[in-house]
Task: inverse folding
C-alpha cells in the first residue's frame, strides 16, 4: 500500500502542476482578494448550477440564453472571465482524470468472452 500511496501522491502532484491547475489556483487567489466580487461570482455560479439542475431540457436552452444575456456585462470583467475560464479548464481536467481512472477499472470488470 505504501507504493500505492506514493504513486497516488505523485499523480496528484503532477495534476496540480498542470497549466490548468496552476491557472485555476492563481485566478482563485486573485478573486479571493476581492470579497465583493467573489460573492458575486459565487452567486453567478450558484444560479448557473441551479438552473442546469432544475430545468427540463425543453426550457433549458431559453433559460441559458436569458441567463447569459443577464450576466453578459458581469462576465466581461477580466478577473471574472479569467476565473470562470480557469475553473472550467480545471473541472475538465478533473473530469478527464476521473474518466480515465473509471475506464481503467471498468476494463478490469469486463466479462465479455474473447
Result:
Amino acid at each position: 500500500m505504501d507504493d500505492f500511496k506514493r504513486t497516488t501522491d505523485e499523480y496528484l502532484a503532477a495534476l496540480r502542476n498542470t497549466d490548468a491547475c496552476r491557472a485555476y489556483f492563481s485566478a482563485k487567489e486573485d478573486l479571493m482578494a476581492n470579497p465583493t466580487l467573489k460573492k458575486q461570482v459565487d452567486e453567478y455560479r450558484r444560479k448557473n448550477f441551479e438552473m442546469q439542475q432544475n430545468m427540463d431540457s425543453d426550457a433549458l436552452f431559453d433559460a441559458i440564453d436569458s441567463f447569459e444575456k443577464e450576466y453578459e456585462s458581469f462576465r466581461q470583467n477580466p478577473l471574472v472571465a479569467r476565473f470562470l475560464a480557469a475553473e472550467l479548464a480545471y473541472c475538465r481536467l478533473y473530469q478527464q482524470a476521473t474518466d480515465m481512472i473509471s475506464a481503467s477499472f471498468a476494463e478490469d470488470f469486463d466479462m465479455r468472452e474473447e
Observations:
- The radius of gyration is 19 Å.
- Helices lie at 2-16, 19-32, 35-54, 57-70, 72-75, 78-108.
